[in-house]
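Worked example

This section walks through a single chain of length 464. The input is the sequence exactly as stored; nothing has been trimmed or padded.
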Amino acid sequence: MAASWAAVLALSISLPLLLLVTWKRWQRGRTARHVVVVVLGDVGRSPRMQYHALSLAKRGFSVTLLGFCNSKPHDELLHSDRIQIVPLTELQRLAVGPHIVQYGVKVVFQAVHLLWKLMCRESAAYIFLQNPPGLPAIAVCWFVCCLCGSKLIIDWHNYGYSIMGLVHGPRHCLVLLAKWYEKLCGRLAHLNLCVTNEMRGDLAENWGIKAVTVYDKPASFFRETPLDLQHRLFMKLSHTYSVFRAGSEPLDPATERSAFTEQDARSGSVTHLRRRPALLVSSTSWTEDEDFSILLAALEKFEQLILKGESFPSLVCVITGKGPLKEYYSRLIGQKRFQHIQVCTPWLEAEDYPLLLGSADLGVCLHKSSSGLDLPMKVVDMFGCCLPVCALNFRCLHELVKHEENGLVFEDSEELAAQLQMLFSKFPDPGGKLNQFRKNLRESELLRWDESWKQTVLPLLMDT
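Given that input, the structure is written out below as tokens.
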């Protein structure tokens, strides 16, 4: 009798599952040009996956983009009739119980929720998955691919376990579990992409995973900003952020002036102010792999030089982004008593960020990869805007930043302060080092994302 009941139970479970698999695979045959892009994070802060979606859409694929919708994605993504954004629900960490239990509950919820969302969508030829975060997304996406006959493509931006290690330490049980999971499940993908040659070698040697390097490239909207658009941006931001407001009013009340530019009331022409401050920009996700105390210490040294009578411009330092450590660094910034340096930490609209980079004089990058194997996309965007960069050195930075060619590499705050001193010594002299770097970037004719994607990723899809 018990055996009969067990058989009935097994049949009641397996028959619906078999019917579901059969239906999904039949549906998959009718949707060969459909791709699901999965980001177990904020879509608006995942530019590379947005670019994947846009490139797929331009090649005739219909795209479903799953992710958290905390920040507004780029307008081009929102206006595409081939891209549908499906929001995932983000479960905040529970306030009670041991940390490991809180994390376990979150992972289980994400697994069930992601599985439900994927199974409710029409079947896809490919599932593009961003990693990290890959726990539990890799296993869930692989399971759905098995059910639906889809092919899993993992885009390795870094290693999730290495990021966890910054918080918990490399020998923590959660970190070791995450590393084992990533190494095991990463091998299940049909195709693996990664962001550097160093990562490709590491995946092959230590993980047994064959990957293809797809370097980050700037999208077409990252370019130098014309002076009239710079002025318009500065005036817009001046309503919210005082660092963009003019230090003095123009003699003609009809003339419009920002901290950096002035528009003639009669001709409408825009010019830089004669003694304008230099605009330094950085962007960050305010996480443990970026130490902004290095920049603050360098700015203090730069300020001391001005106070001693050295001929340097005042600085406006704009640090954009959102993240868990923003409040901590905002308090540190608030404790400084700068007289010739102003620091601002805005969150910009997606359309304003490229305009700001294209208006700046120097970019600074403090990204120090948790694995040593990924590259900062912010530098890619800055180079797209022909913006010279000072970047903190780490293992594979040489794949992107060429010291003394498109920017400078530093090891600590002392070296960064010396570089600021050298770059701004004759600002804004057109014959200075800053303009030489900018000239080199213009002449390099950097390949854009869509063209690079067409050359590297599209052939891989056509061959599978």
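What to look for: The chain has 16 helices and 16 strands.
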